[in-house]
Amino acid sequence: MKKNDSPKKQVKPIPHCRQKILVMLFALGISIHGSANSSVNVPHELVPSITLEQSGIAIEDIDAGPGCNYILYTFAITNTSTNGEVFTNVNLNHSLPVLGDLISFNGGDDNNNNLLDVDEVWEYSALYTIQSADINSGQVASEADVTAEVQGQPGVTVSDLDTSEIDLTFCQGGIAVVKQGFATNDLDQGGLGCVYIFYNFIVTNQGQQVLENPILTDPLLGGEIVGPEEGDSNTNGKLDLNETWVYQYVYEIQPEDIANGIVENQAEVTANVDGKPDVTVSDLSHFDDPLDDAPTVISLLHCQTPDMGLIKEGVVVDANGDGCLESILYTFTLTNTGNADLDGIILEDELLGGEIPGPLAVSDDGNDGILSVGETWTYFALYAITQEDIDNSSVVNQAEVSGFAPDDSLVEDLSDDDSLFEDEFTRTPVPEDSCTDGSPDPESGLGLIKQGALIDNDNNECAESILYNFSIINLTDIDMVNVVLTDELLGGVIAGPISDENNDGVLSPDEVWTYQATYDIQQVDIDAGSFVNQASATSSLFGLDIQYDDLSDNDSYTEDEPTVINIPVDACPGGDNPGGPGEPGEPIGFEIFNGITPNEDGLNDFFFIQGIEIYPQNKLQIFNRWGVMVYEKEGYGQGNDLFYGISDGRVTVRKNEELPSGTYFYILTFTGNNPGEAEYTGYLYINRG
Q1: Radius of gyration of the chain (CA)
Q2: What is the DSSP letter of 26?
Q3: Residue 584, preceding bond cis, omega within 30 degrees?
Q4: What are phi and psi of 21, to 5 degrees?
Q5: pLDDT tens across 71-119, in order?
Q6: Whole-angstrom Cα distance, residue 550 to residue 563?
């Protein structure tokens, strides 16, 4: 701001001794507050100087005391020259842009000559409106500066600046909430219980400002808590200074709370400084200290009745896949029947060697090792039948389980054969023709057949590939998982399967999975006249640490002979077909033979379809001359699924009976890859001779 006109004001002269000190300091080249700027620098020359002092105070109003609405700034500009210089064109500027046009001159130009004479003090003031952002930051920091020209010395100016920080932390306000509670059965009579939790909230004004719009929220209790019940003494809806409000809420204890053993949560209170909706205060609750923050924890351990039940069931199985029952598969079902979560679970069975590994990961909800209320875990164990068991006609025993409640108390149970709440021994009958083979044979429970056929991909009568079909069967009585098929000459692990009966990733007993892979014929194979190799498969019993493996055979699940594919001399190596591409091709040698003589002489005993094993996604239906279906099979030609002239299928009139000689009609359909057509039909002749 530039001073244009001002009333006179008496200024107290600088004492004579102070003048001497200033003269000495200027003579030494030391500047006090302000300094002169000139294009000519004369060492040790007395220079003119000016001083600016800025101060401010936060007030409620111009005629009121301290508050948070305005800051009253005052500025004092003094000519502190010691050589008689006079200043003109005095300009006062401020870092707060809004003050530029609000600074007013209050006086000090004693002779009203618009010149800042020596020792003269000019006073200014400005009123700044405090913003919400200022209160939220807790202060207003600013800087003012003054410039002036030295009269009679063109180009010589003087300047000074001063800073200030006005504290506004007292404007921010403060609030606190304490949350306390106790569990009870009766709100009127009190006492320890397990039905309700009675919560009491104490909200206090911790600052120097009246607060409006206080809101108390608690997520556990549904959000905003209505109130207060008491404390708003003047019923103005504002939390006045030193006022304490009390809220109350009754929470109904839930079963999961008892299971956890505690109810732990935290409330929050928010409010605005009165008249300043953008200035917000808040606090998280504490259980007894208004100046701290911590959740309120209500113990419900006294409400817990921890318990669990164990069922042990056994069934005699063939775990070797050799057709003889030699093992007992035990299934343990453990359920939390109490109202408290349990951990540290240990299942033991002396008959099975002590601790039983588990549970199955899929049965542990969240895989957290905690048996929650109502949760059921499943374990499996395999026992090898002994001669003594066969002599006794049964195996009788009992398992036990232990765990810990949230209060670290021990919880135990003995198994029952069919009830979670009883403790009877489990009796498993053992047939007299059972075997005593001992532990499962890793090489006998899994079967793998690998078959192949020459493929002419572009139908120009030149075979360039081998299409392999793999069939894996579970020969045991127990589900298998983690099935992996590997063929190193075909690149390692074979993707699949392309047929999973239930699409569940579980190879069930007697279920067959099929895979396919293609091999490009190489010149070395043509030179050798054949291509010989073998695949391998691995699996594990579901829920048991028992592994199986098998090497492939060309036609049997129980043998391990390599698969041999004869390669003609006119085959095309690496897919090189000199005749060029033709129509979409089919396996070389795919052919349906329409006559069978089922007399067990090893010749034409079954309905032979050459190359059918390459296309496992097929269905064969056979009808008699009256149109009655006598045979139906999905996946015909896979393994031993063949038609020997015996009625079979879901809708046959007489199942498993020999069909008479005669003419029959077949329909062969393909739902996946096919040998050229999606459906083949024709006549089939049975001649029993």
Answers
A1: 49
A2: H
A3: no
A4: -65, -45
A5: 999 999 999 998 889 999 999 998 887 776 678 888 999 899 999 999 9
A6: 14
- CA–CA separation, 322 vs 390, rounded Å? 18
Answer for the pair 14, 102: CB distance below 8 angstroms, yes or no.
no
For residue 272, the Cα-to-chain-centroid distance in whole angstroms is 37
**Bridge-based pairing state of the strands 595-596 and 679-686:** parallel
Q: Which two tokens stand for residue 83?
A: 């050589």
As a whole number of angstroms, the distance between CA 105 and CA 86 comes to 19
**Residue 17 phi, psi (nearest 5):** -65, -35
Strands 327-336 and 465-474: unpaired
- Evaluate the CA torsion angle 178, 179, 182, 187 in order and state its sign: positive
Supply the DSSP string of 423-491, one letter for each residue: -PPEEEE--TT-----S--TTTSEEEEEEEEEE-TTSSS---EEEEEEEEEE-SSS-EEEEEEEEGGGT
Q: Is 114 helix (H, G, I), strand (E, B) or coil?
A: coil
Cβ neighbourhood burial of 114 (10 Å; 0-12, 13-18, 19+): middle
pLDDT at residue 36 above 60?
no
Q: For residue 458, is it left (φ>0), alpha (ψ between -120 and 50) or beta?
A: alpha
Q: Which of 343, 385, 380, 340 is nearest to 545 (CA)?
A: 380
What pTM does this model have?
A: 0.53
- Among 270, 347, 263, 352, smallest CA distance to 311 is for 347
User: What distance lies between CA 606 and its chain's CA centroid?
Assistant: 56
Rounded to the nearest angstrom, the gap between the alpha carbon of residue 40 and the centroid of all alpha carbons in its chain is 73
Question: Quick check: 665 and 648 in contact, CB under 8 A?
Answer: no
Reference 95, options 70, 126, 135, 51; nearest CA is 126
By residue count, the chain amounts to: 689
Q: Out of 20-24, 275-279, 343-347, 580-584, which region has the weakest mean confidence (pLDDT)?
A: 20-24
* Cβ–Cβ < 8 Å for 329, 317: yes
Q: How far apart are CA 19 and CA 46, in angstroms?
A: 13
What is the tens place of the pLDDT at every residue in 431-488? Answer: 998 888 766 666 668 889 988 888 877 666 788 888 888 999 988 888 899 999 999 9
* Number of helices followed by number of strands (H, E) in the chain: 5, 43
What angle is formed at CA 252 by the lines to CA 246 and CA 257, rounded to 5 degrees? 110
User: Residue 499 is encoded by which pair of tokens?
Assistant: 């047929």
Mean pLDDT of 582-606: 71
Q: What angle do CA 292, 294, 299 make, to 5 degrees?
A: 135
Please state, as a whole number, how many other Cβ atoms lie within 10 Å of the Cβ of residue 686: 21
Q: Which residue has the tokens 């395999």?
A: 382
